[in-house]
């Protein structure tokens, strides 16, 4: 198929960006979206132009590095996938595709489609851990049975890949789905109970400090999340935060 | 220089304990004055950085991704082994040790492997304490699954995302230390050289990938945890950014590189679909627990399937060739990876491949779905369930176990693997070879350590499934923190290492000159053009089977390609900005050298062992006819190569392998 791409180009964080049009031809429907971008970049390199910078690494939907906003949707039109798993069969010949970076005040653009998501790291520094040193002397892994239900729910929350699609999608640029997932993972496990109150207070405080907005329950984040993280995690985080006040 | 593995004396089961009792320790007040650099933040690097910081050292950690949480350990799917014997099926430290040495085709160092097996149980305890949500059974206890090459269930897992959960555990431990100021994290930084002062590793030169700035960082010791070199094949299951630059740079500064030809071609990956393909996707080996591998028995069916006239589900049981079950009745679909890969290649070379490229076999879940469905029907007291009911119940069980893998497959291939068998084919996945290290995990350069996949030590010529996660975390959490302390105890009076010295000047100049060359060379071809060519040579001549003539050709072709690269490579953009093409150029330049050493090592090793299969060395008769033939008399050694300028001139040093606790036997999975 032949496509027109409208891509956000921005030299660096201080430069002013703009949309630029490109054409690509003979794109196979079996290609992934990023392989289509590779074709474009190879074309640009060969014609002496600068290729489009974009974040990507594992290309199997787990590292959370890829981050494009495609035709107005984080990770594009398919559901339950990251951009690297999006395939060109979702598009048709002659389409015009708009490609922008994830936009949020807390995610400044570094270059082209690359954004700075270190705010997520800083929220984790504030409490996204259980304080246990490495010693080899922790108690036996089976010493505390954990109900399968709780373990499975904790796993579902822990599946978050930290890509930031929730923030990019939210009209308030809220990071609550991301923070809620981490708070929930630990809140659901006995090991996380000891520090639960401090954890949720500190992580939420850092989230606010980074400039992420509030949740107004539109649920867009849950729909765009490539890993299907549930809104329940936001509710659980709010509940944990309430509990922590007492 | 003679290689000294520094393996402690005494019985194998006491070595590590005795060693820990006798090493020198650094007092907590002195640790505050000691800096350690860790390059890479996967399972090995992340766990090492966190543990060293907990102990009190000042850690500087580096990763090229935008966050340490994205290292490619995150993509590991199936699980992590540990000798817990929770299933009571006869597992023990010794058995895990034995399985690993045997699975590695008797080419690993006994003492290291025993230590690995010994600390494996601690890893699970540690991870559970960190809040890693491993799978559990209804009683609330940890669940296990089995993996290839062993007869017990010792693999712990978190759905098909075990690597992700373990890495996020290590990342959380790092976060705690970053918050305390004990780890300084350098995201989007790439190490481009190591700096040696008086023969000791004392720092690195790194490039800030956002600004392009070249930075000097000093430390009392340097730890390389940068993963494997699978991307030398261009197409692999590695991440796009996975590279060998850190490992190769230290090789050029004196660290020997061991057994580069030991590369794992993983049997179950999604086959390639076209020339534009950028990477290959693994389907976890855990699928072989429930999936049965087959190709059609008759050539007419193969042709009919390729032409779309027949579907795989149209073939009856006796029209199918379950070739692993046929050839290896004892292990069946759970033979080790190297054996399964070669068997797939054998069938496809014989013309039985089931897709358009002729490079695919089926991995079929129909009988597992039926088996689980019947089991569930019984559990739920459903009498005379319909076939549809059995399918629905069974599908649920399979979905709970492998749901994310099935979804990934469906998104890529656009076929529903619950209804039609998956198509799979082997792909480069892991590299057992790597930087040579002694028992302390130190390279041949003082104060320079190498851990995780980047080193060569534990997997011999073939790694068993679910052992990479085990090794990465064992090295980082439980081994290096002891061994490095013994070395650093001599550095308590050294004081801060200055970076305004001639050694740093020289290393920085070398790095800058190379970058200047790339951005100023007005060549004709993109970096990917060379990377793809290299990958094709490697796959065709250093792939699943190798022979003398092909390897000699590979060496010559890679050398010629490298020379062309240095004349004609084209890198757009400048040095002082974010420039992904420039990053790739540096990495491919190193792969172009490593590839040649790889072929040289494969040529030197005229035996078949593990992932290294030499066509000249096969069993000619008996029950094992056609199987790989190892040659213990001539090749029971680690081939450690010393850099001498050109890869072809590398000098071989042998570490003879001694097997005192395990009898050397032909590996049989029949």
TrEMBL record, chain A:
It comes from the Bacteria. GO terms for biological process: respiratory electron transport chain; tricarboxylic acid cycle. NCBIfam families: dhsB (TIGR00384), PRK07570.1 (NF005746). InterPro entries: 2Fe-2S_ferredoxin-like_sf (IPR036010), 2Fe2S_fd_BS (IPR006058), 4Fe4S_Fe-S-bd (IPR017896), Beta-grasp_dom_sf (IPR012675), Helical_ferredxn (IPR009051), SDH/FRD_Iron-Sulfur (IPR050573), Succ_DH/fum_Rdtase_Fe-S (IPR004489), Succ_DH/fum_Rdtase_N (IPR025192). SUPFAM superfamilies: 2Fe-2S ferredoxin-like, alpha-helical ferredoxin. Pfam families: Fer2_3, Fer4_8. GO terms for molecular function: 2 iron, 2 sulfur cluster binding; 4 iron, 4 sulfur cluster binding; electron transfer activity; metal ion binding; oxidoreductase activity. Its cofactor is [3Fe-4S] cluster; [2Fe-2S] cluster; [4Fe-4S] cluster. This is Succinate dehydrogenase/fumarate reductase iron-sulfur subunit. PANTHER family: SUCCINATE DEHYDROGENASE, SUCCINATE DEHYDROGENASE IRON-SULFUR PROTEIN.
TrEMBL record, chain B:
Pfam families: FAD_binding_2, Succ_DH_flav_C. GO terms for molecular function: electron transfer activity; flavin adenine dinucleotide binding; succinate dehydrogenase (quinone) activity. One of its GO terms (biological process) is anaerobic respiration. It is an enzyme of class 1 (oxidoreductase). It is found in: Cell membrane. It is a peripheral membrane protein. Belongs to the FAD-dependent oxidoreductase 2 family. FRD/SDH subfamily. This is succinate dehydrogenase. It comes from Aestuariibaculum sediminum.
């Amino acid at each position: 198929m032949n496509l027109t791409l409208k891509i956000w180009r921005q030299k660096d964080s201080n430069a002013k960006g703009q949309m630029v049009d490109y054409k690509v031809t003979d794109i196979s429907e079996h290609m992934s979206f990023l392989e289509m971008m590779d074709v474009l970049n190879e074309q640009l390199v060969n014609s002496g132009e600068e290729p489009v910078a974009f974040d990507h690494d594992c290309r199997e939907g787990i590292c959370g590095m890829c981050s494009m906003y495609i035709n107005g949707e984080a990770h594009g039109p398919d559901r339950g996938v990251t951009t690297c798993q999006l395939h060109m069969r979702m598009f048709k010949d002659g389409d015009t595709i708009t490609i922008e970076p994830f936009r949020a005040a807390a995610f400044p653009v570094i270059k082209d489609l690359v954004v700075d998501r270190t705010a997520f790291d800083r929220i984790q520094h504030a409490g996204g851990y259980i304080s246990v040193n490495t010693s080899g002397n922790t108690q036996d892994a089976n010493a505390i049975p954990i109900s399968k239900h709780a373990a499975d729910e904790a796993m579902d929350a822990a599946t978050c890949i930290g890509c930031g699609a929730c923030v990019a999608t939210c009209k308030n640029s809220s990071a609550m789905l991301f923070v809620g997932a981490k708070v929930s993972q630990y809140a659901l496990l006995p090991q996380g109970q000891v520090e639960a109150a401090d954890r949720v207070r500190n992580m939420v405080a850092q989230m606010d400090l980074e400039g992420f907005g509030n949740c107004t329950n539109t649920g867009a984040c849950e729909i765009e999340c490539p890993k299907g993280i549930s809104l329940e995690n936001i509710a659980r985080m709010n509940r944990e935060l309430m509990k922590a006040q007492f | 220089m003679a290689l000294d593995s520094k393996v402690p004396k005494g019985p194998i089961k006491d070595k590590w304990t005795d060693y820990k009792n006798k090493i020198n320790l650094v007092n907590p007040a002195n640790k505050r004055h000691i800096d350690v650099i860790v390059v890479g933040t996967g399972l090995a690097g992340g766990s090492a950085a966190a543990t060293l910081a907990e102990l009190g050292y000042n850690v500087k950690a580096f990763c090229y991704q935008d966050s340490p949480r994205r290292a490619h350990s995150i993509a590991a799917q199936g699980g992590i082994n540990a000798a817990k014997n929770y299933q009571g099926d006869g597992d023990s430290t010794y058995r895990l040790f034995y399985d690993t040495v045997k699975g590695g085709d008797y080419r690993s160092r006994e003492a290291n492997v025993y230590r690995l097996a010994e600390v494996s149980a601690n890893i699970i305890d540690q991870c559970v304490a960190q809040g890693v949500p491993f799978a559990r059974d209804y009683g609330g206890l940890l669940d296990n699954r089995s993996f290839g090459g062993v007869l017990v269930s010792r693999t712990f897992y978190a759905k098909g995302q075990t690597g992700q959960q373990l890495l996020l555990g290590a990342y959380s431990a790092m976060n705690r230390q970053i918050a305390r100021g004990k780890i300084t994290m350098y995201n989007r930084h790439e190490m481009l050289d190591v700096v040696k002062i008086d023969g000791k590793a004392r720092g690195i030169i790194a490039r800030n990938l956002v600004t392009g700035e070249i930075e000097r960082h000093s430390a009392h010791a340097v730890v390389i945890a940068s993963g494997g070199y699978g991307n030398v094949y261009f197409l692999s299951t590695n991440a796009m950014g996975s590279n060998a630059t850190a490992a190769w740079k230290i090789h050029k500064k004196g660290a020997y590189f061991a057994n580069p030809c030991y590369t794992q071609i993983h049997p179950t990956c999604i086959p390639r679909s076209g020339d534009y393909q950028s990477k290959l996707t693994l389907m976890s080996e855990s699928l072989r627990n429930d999936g049965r591998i087959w190709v059609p028995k008759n050539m007419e069916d193969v042709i009919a399937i390729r032409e779309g006239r027949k579907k795989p589900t149209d073939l009856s049981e006796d029209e199918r060739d379950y070739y692993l079950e046929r050839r290896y009745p004892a292990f069946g679909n759970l033979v080790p990876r190297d054996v399964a890969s070669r068997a797939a290649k054998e069938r496809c070379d014989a013309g039985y491949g089931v897709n358009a490229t002729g490079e695919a076999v089926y991995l079929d879940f129909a009988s597992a779905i039926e088996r689980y469905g019947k089991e569930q029907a019984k559990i739920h007291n459903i009498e005379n369930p319909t076939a549809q009911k059995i399918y629905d119940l069974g599908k649920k069980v399979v979905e709970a176990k492998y749901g994310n893998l099935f979804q990934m497959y469906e998104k890529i291939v656009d076929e529903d693997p619950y209804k039609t068998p998956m198509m799979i084919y082997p792909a480069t996945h892991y590299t057992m070879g790597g930087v040579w290290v002694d028992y302390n995990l130190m390279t041949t350069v003082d104060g320079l350590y190498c851990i995780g996949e980047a080193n060569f030590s534990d997997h011999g010529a073939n790694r068993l499934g679910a052992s990479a996660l085990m090794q990465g975390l064992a090295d980082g959490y439980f081994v290096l923190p002891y061994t490095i302390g013994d070395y650093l105890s001599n550095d308590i009076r050294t004081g801060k290492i200055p970076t305004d010295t001639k050694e740093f000047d020289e290393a920085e100049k070398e790095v800058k000159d190379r970058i200047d060359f790339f951005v100023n060379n007005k060549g004709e071809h993109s970096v990917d053009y060379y990377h793809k060519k290299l990958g094709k040579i490697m796959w065709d001549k250093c792939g699943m089977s190798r022979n003398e003539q092909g390897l000699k050709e590979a060496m010559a072709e890679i050398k010629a390609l490298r020379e062309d690269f240095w004349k004609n490579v084209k890198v757009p953009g400048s040095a002082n900005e974010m420039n992904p093409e420039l990053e790739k150029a540096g990495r491919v330049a190193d792969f172009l050298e490593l590839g040649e050493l790889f072929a040289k090592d494969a040529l030197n090793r005229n035996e078949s062992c593990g992932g290294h299969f030499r066509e000249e060395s096969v069993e000619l008769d008996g029950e094992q006819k056609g199987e790989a033939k190892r040659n213990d008399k001539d090749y029971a050694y680690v081939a450690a190569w010393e850099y001498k300028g050109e890869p072809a001139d590398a000098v071989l040093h042998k570490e003879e392998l001694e097997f005192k606790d395990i009898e050397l036997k032909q590996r049989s999975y029949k």
